[in-house]
Amino acid sequence: MNGSEGRSYDGARDALCYIKGQGDDMVILELGLTRSADEPELGGILAGPSERNAVLMASGLSLGGRMAFIWAPGSPLFAGRSYEQIRTAVAIPNLKVVILSSHDWTALGHDGAVGLMCEDIALMRVMPNMAVLVPSDRNSAFALTRSLAGNDGPAYVRLSMAATGDIYEYGDSDFAVGGARLLTEGDGVTIVSCGVMVKEALEAAKVLSQQGINADVIDCYSIKPFPERMLVASVRRTGCCVVAEKHASAAGLYGAVTECLARNYMVPVRSVAIGDNFATSGTHEEIQEYYGLTHREIVHNVVQVWAMRRR
Amino acid sequence: MDDARRSELEGIALDIRKDVVRMAGVSKSSGLLPALTVVELLVYLYWEFMRIFPGQRNNPERDRLVLSSVSAAPALYACLSSLGFFDRDELWSYRRLGGMLQGYPDIRTPGIDAPGGTNGLGIALGLALQIRMAGLGGRVFCVMGEGEPCGDGLWESIDAAAVHAPGNIFMIMESAGEPGGEMEAEAPLLKRLASFGWKADVADGRDFASIERAFRSIKTPMREPAAIIALTGGSRRHPDAFESKAQDRPPSLDDVERALSELDTKAGKRGGAA
Question: How much helix, strand and coil, in percent to the nearest 5, is found in chain A?
Fold first, then answer.
């Protein structure tokens, strides 16, 4: 597994194998025509290449009494292609269906705008009943996916193929739907991030501490339900906030954060994200640089927002 | 099916049709009338073919019905209330704020096995697979409206059902064709279904004996998924009292009365001929 350390993709896959071994009240639907020959078998039902049909089948399996996990490697467009089916057949009846969309958009960067979806968190977040989770590394992906076996409704999990390294210890199980983790504590700025940007946020915090700004770094892996109390408590101390996500800047984590702050405690906020753009083709690293999804960009935004912080 | 049972089912179908017309009258919407075409199919399934337990709505041994047809909900609701799943008065608040009966079938309603409003065949396939994996004997019936073969990913699910072939899945496709007609619409559909690995047949969706012949020719567990194309005559079967109305004008109480007596007269004629 060279170069794949810490991928949330692997953590979620391991968790599915683990849950499957615990009993037969769950079922895995594998999207695709064939299974990958390189990985141990998940032992799920091969659902075929259609996202829409996979969602409908998951709905039926769940209506029959089993929790259905849709394993959708290679389908970054999942949320868009099957939006209506997710809405009508899963979210409205509030069924136990978990969608694991296993690439965030830059992992398939070569595909460019058409093959890369950076609006999926937004689409899933506005859907009533749907939980939206974006784990940041292999260990948190494992624990979160495992915890979903006890979830009462539908969930969308956005995984990544990018090797982020371990952020959490192996075996750390302190993750739950609606939760978040405070990774570093400080009183200068709140940096909220999710998925692969958590690693960048931690890097940024190191740089900032050398400049005398101590950051609260929050891994906001549960975008919905949103961990409101942790964020509000943090910005009350720091008075400013930067949000970092690998997503369009509208309606994703930045949307969740600003909605929460508008309701509770207004502070200046900046977004480090893809902006209002469709992505271009390129490698994972090139795209990170091109769109400024880097710790340097986070530092840059923190400096601006810190100057305007609420005191 | 003997003549006595047949006229009994026809009597039930008449009652259901009249309730659908009353629902259209109460809700002031002639848009509910397309539900009339599916009545005989639903009556046959619920009163003759399916195993149901109205007193135990979650009985695991029950057969399930997935209503994919978006226009058929009023007929399904009228059937379920007649079977005792819920009070008949609920029909009169169909689609009303605070009423139990939602525009599209909602699984919180007693007797509703699956959400409606989207391609139901995929849902039916998941249900059928789960029933088989759980070692239960239930069968799953998916009722499709007329336009559905043309849209919304149905053929993806038709393909998947043939691949997984759970052995307990039936699709009933309404077609507006006339029994004894030229089969213009049905012949290509039969061919397409066969090419996808389905066993498909045509029945007169207005005639209980014909519907029964089609269903009895299928023995479960089947090797292939089974489809019945039911010719239901389409909108030609709406009561004239409503037909003369412009689409945008709501039916009056008088229209409803005339439509009800028209249904009675037609049923009487048919009864006399039998």
Answer: 40, 15, 40
Of the partner residues B126, B134, B153, the one whose CB lies closest to the CB of residue A60: B126
Preceding omega of A268 cis (within 30 degrees of 0)? no
Radius of gyration of chain B, Cα coordinates, nearest whole angstrom: 18
- The share of chain A scoring above pLDDT 70, in percent, equals 96
B127, B131, B160: residue with CB nearest A53? B160
Q: Do B156 and A53 touch (CB under 8 A)?
A: yes
Q: How far apart are the first and last CA of chain A?
A: 48
- Is B121's CB within 8 Å of A89's CB? no
pLDDT single digits (tens) A74-111: 788 899 999 999 999 999 999 999 999 976 655 555 77
Contact: B164, A52; criterion CB under 8 Å: no
Q: How much is the ipTM here?
A: 0.93
* Domain count along chain B: 1
Residues β-bridged to residue A48: A31, A32
Pairing, β A155-158 against β A189-193: unpaired
Shortest Cα distance, chain B CAs vs residue A103, angstroms: 23
Q: A82 at the B interface (CB within 8 A)?
A: no
Is B242 domain-assigned? no
The nearest CA of chain B is from the CA of A138 a distance in Å of: 30
Rounded to whole angstroms, the Cα distance separating B45 from B230 reads: 13
The residue with tokens 């009675």 is: B264
- B163 domain-assigned: yes
Residue B269 lies in a domain: yes
**Mind listing the pLDDT tens digit for each residue in B86-118?**
999 999 999 999 999 999 999 999 999 999 988
Q: What is the pTM of this model?
A: 0.94
- Whether B246 is covered by a domain: the verdict is no
DSSP state letter for B251: P
